What we know:
This protein is mainly β.
Amino acid sequence: xxxxxxxxRDEWMLRxxxxxxxxxxxWHSMTAENAETGELKPFYVEFFTCNPALAEDDPVIxxxxxxxxxxxxxxxxxxxxxGFWGEDxxxxxxxxxxxxxxxxxxxxxxxxxxxxxxSEVHTEGSIKVTPxxxxxxxxxxxxxxxxxxKFDIRKEIxxxxxxxASKFFRRINAFxxxxxxxxxxSAFKGEIILNGVRYLLKEETCNGYSDKNWGGDFTSPWVxxxxxxLKSMISGKKLENSVFNIGGGRPKVFFLALNRxxxxxxxxxxxxxxxxxxxxxxxxxxxxxxxxxxxxxxWHVLQTTKNAKLDTQIRCYKKDMLNIKxxxxxxxxxxxxxWNGGNGTGTLKLxxxxxxxxxxxxxxxxxxxxxxxxxxxxxxxxx
Length: 383
């Protein structure tokens, strides 16, 4: 399914059982330009909601608190999470009780908490955490700093995973973790101010990405790769109408864990190449390996169908990445080394296949920059 938009999948999903044990978030990542120096810097902005039926007057933050878990506490809040990558990387968190949040649940969604707002077409807000607050509130899992943002959103190309996130499967909560990228290629226009420095978002250079995840728990391993900052290594030209998106890990269907699987799509200059294990008739197959060295995180993903092959190799320096912090709706924080970056680089080799893979022809070899990238597996907090 090439570039099928469906804003119904961007609705707020925390109804029924997920209202008491569920999360739903909207994510936007981008590259912005320093207004004075022209330096490019990657950022993200996220609105993360959790367990609305358990809302109290103040945000309920558990973060592996044994006493809270003994008391049967589970988290409930809106966490507005904004961050930035590079050697000065950081993540800033601001929490609200869901009693104080206005959410328009149906499409087109909107969410408002004080000066923090997010919708299909616009987001703005601010977070300020002093060093004293960060030290006094480790449960916030936040760095110290100050950030504000205001930008418009135009979602140009969508990644539609098919029936796996259809209304029926959403209603019965078939999967433990759902995914939809309404704007895997998005254009943002506006500004971000980080610790007093102003950055501009321009539609033509923002390398914008918008998606959402929701469900009852997270996946392990957790893999995500995406960018639309692409250049053909054969022609030397920038690919203006292209984007790739890969994600997944080990999906669970009704608590049954499947083998390691990824979903992927390469929208190449207007032509769609999809690698989706749920579409069995395409003979989709994926092999992937992710590993950590002293200095880098690496991803190698090989995806095939009867008609195409995509060989993706990505790397990102750990000095530019952060270990992003998420609390599952159970109150447990099992992802303690979830590497998350926006400065990944790598290559994608796209092939046309025929005769069920017996013949292959190279369509293009593509160099990618500014790759949003993620990898993590459940591990002990002491590791």
